[in-house]
Amino acid sequence: MSDLRGPVRRPYRVGYAPGAYDLFHIGHLNILRHARSQCDYLVAGVVSDEMAERAKGRRPMIPLVERLEIVRSVKYVDAAFVETVPDKVETWRQVRFDVLFKGDDWRGTPKGDKLESDFAAVGVDVVYFPYTVHTSSTQLRRALDALAEPILPDAVTVERR
């Protein structure tokens, strides 16, 4: 990207935005849009079904191959990477990014603090973006689960003919 003065230089060269990206929604899009505005090249890390199940206690509703294709097709994403190991520093060794982007629901949590400490040791920044509170894959999953519950007959007696 450039303007009349030349190429636009963003704060980071390669950014990494990991996530399950299950039931893709506006919160996911917001993270990817904000992340891309901060780096020249954005890699989205899509966690494997097994990794998502280990982290969240359930498999994603959308299989990995479909989540990968959805994320890869977002205009803000330059490349998509399948995350198969829980250690983000190991992922960094494979991808070599300058900054990792997360939702600010991680800020100040034990997981966020560990992420910041681990990445400070290798010179990678962790940048938080506002979490989209009103939409989440967990909320969408609950709504879908509620729709899938069996409908119980009313207490009204049904007359047989």
Notable characteristics:
161 residues, alpha/beta, five-stranded parallel β-sheet, 6 helices, 7 strands, globular
Structural write-up:
- With 161 residues, the chain is an alpha/beta fold.
- It is 37% helix and 22% strand.
- It is built from six helices and seven strands; from the N terminus they run E-E-E-H-E-H-H-E-H-E-H-E-H.
- It has helices at residues 26-37, 49-56, 64-72, 88-95, 110-120, 137-148; strands at residues 2-3, 6-7, 12-19, 39-47, 79-83, 99-103, 125-129.
- The protein has a five-stranded parallel sheet.
- Strand 1 and strand 2 form a beta hairpin.
- The termini are far apart.
- Residues 155-161 have low confidence and may be disordered.
Average pLDDT level: 85
Residue fraction in strands: 15-25%
Task: Indicate the low-confidence ranges by residue numbers.
Answer: 155-161
Number of helices: 6
Number of extended strands? 7
Secondary-structure element string: EEEHEHHEHEHEH
How is the largest sheet built, in terms of strand order?
A: 5-4-3-6-7
The structure class reads alpha/beta
Question: How would you summarize this macromolecular structure in one to three sentences?
Answer:
Helix content is 37%, strand content 22%.
Give the SSE map:
Blueprint: E1 2-3, E2 6-7, E3 12-19, H1 26-37, E4 39-47, H2 49-56, H3 64-72, E5 79-83, H4 88-95, E6 99-103, H5 110-120, E7 125-129, H6 137-148
Parallel strand pairs: 3-4, 3-6, 4-5, 6-7
Antiparallel strand pairs: 1-2
